[in-house]
Amino acid sequence: MRIVALEEHFATKQFFEGPGREHFERMASGSQRFPGGAGRLAERLSDVASGRIAEMDAAGIDVQVLSLTAPGLEQVPGSDAVALARAINDDLAAAIGDHPQRLAGFAALPTADPA
Q1: CA angle 37, 38, 39 (to 5 degrees)
Q2: DSSP secondary structure of 78-110
Q3: pTM
Q4: Which tens digits make up the pLDDT trace of 10-45?
Q5: Domain positions in the chain
Q6: Residue closest to 68 by CA, chosen among 90, 45, 51
Q7: Is 110 exposed, middle or buried (0-12, 13-18, 19+ CB in 10 A)?
Q8: What does 28-84 look like in DSSP terms, one character per residue?
Q9: Among 68, 74, 64, residue whose Cα is nearest residue 11
Q10: Which one-letter DSSP state was computed for residue 111?
Q11: Cβ-Cβ contacts under 8 Å for 91 (sequence gap 6 or more)
């Protein structure tokens, strides 16, 4: 039997420079706590390669279904959300392409501009 973990969060450089920036800065300043520190969280969220696969192996997980961490694109206005979603989804597709037997994903949707 295969073990599949759903909605495992990830983030990209574009995300940390956009909607995730303020949240990440609060963690880095200590006003919002995360065990191991904000830098470690960013590192783990951004790792969709060897580090994540090694942790999956250690936990007995065969496949992870990745989804963009929160806060997501819902707070990004219209056309900016579309461009950011495209960049994030392209990165997600590349990660899945590199590890097709281990990773799957939910696309990030620009809910402010669903057309």
Answers
A1: 95
A2: HHHHHHHHHHHHHHHHHHHHHSTTTEEEPPP--
A3: 0.81
A4: 998 888 777 666 666 665 555 445 555 556 777 888
A5: 4-105
A6: 45
A7: buried
A8: HHTSS--TT-HHHHHHHHH--SHHHHHHHHHHT-SEEEEEEPSS-GGGS-HHHHHHH
A9: 68
A10: T
A11: 12, 14, 48
Q: What is the percentage of the chain residues whose pLDDT exceeds 70?
A: 79
Count Cα neighbours of 16 within 13 Å in the Cβ-side half-sphere. 16
pLDDT at 59: 97
Sheet of 4-10: strand order equals 4-10, 63-68, 103-105
Task: Give the whole-angstrom CA distance, residue 79 versus residue 101.
Answer: 33
Output the six-digit token pair for 109. 């949707």
Residues 6+ apart with CB under 8 A from 20: 11, 69, 71
Name the amino acid, one letter, at 44. Answer: R
83: which 2 tokens? 């461009």
